[in-house]
Write a structure and sequence with these properties.
It is built from 1 helix and 12 strands; from the N terminus they run H-E-E-E-E-E-E-E-E-E-E-E-E. With 230 residues, it is mainly β. Strands 1-2-3-4-5-6-7-8-9-10-11-12 form a 12-stranded antiparallel β-barrel. The radius of gyration is 16 Å and the shape is globular.
Length: 230
Amino acid sequence: MRVNPWPARFGVAVPMLAVTMAAHAGGHFEVDDAGTLNAGECQVELWGGHGRKTDINFYHAGPSCGVGVVELGLNWDITRGVRTNLLGPQAKWTFFGREPDSVVSAAVSAGAQYDVHHGGQWGGQGLLALSWQALAPLQVNANLGVDWATEGGDRYSRGGLQVQWAVRPDFTLIAERNHSFSQWGTRVGFSWQVSTQTSIDFSIAHLGLAGGEWVYTVGLNQAFDFGGKR
């Protein structure tokens, strides 16, 4: 699961991206799919990134588990350069098309963030995620939702579209276009399934901020099965 930070002002753009990314389930990519973990399944997502122009580094740790029909998680996000330290819970529910062979799926998620570093302010995110398995190797994901910034509590609408193409069973190319915190962003990358329970992902993103910003992110996802079934 994830919730990312990236305000419109250039000086604090990278930390806001890190926060909005944390609010979704499914690695560090901005656009989330509609899948959730089954009961008894758990996952830990770790990633780090760097903003080239702002010279800001950000890090994320996010454990989550399937509990009944929902996925519950905890997000911890830290940035260096513009200091933030965000901690908060996340919940996600696939209410339509939960079966593995579903062509269309839909989920809702909600998360909150507590700004430990800046006076304990709260922010968060609410999201609707849709997934369409257009072809065996092709999946299209769409998001629509809202973010609340920890600084000032301002509300921002968000939306995005993502295409995933499975070149091989263990290697998927990903491209997405997303609008959040009043800014457009484009991200391309890949996810590599190293083993049945371990995957590595990498992306390059260009954010439509003042003058533009390039962000590089690498992530590690480790799954654990305590009796769940996929």
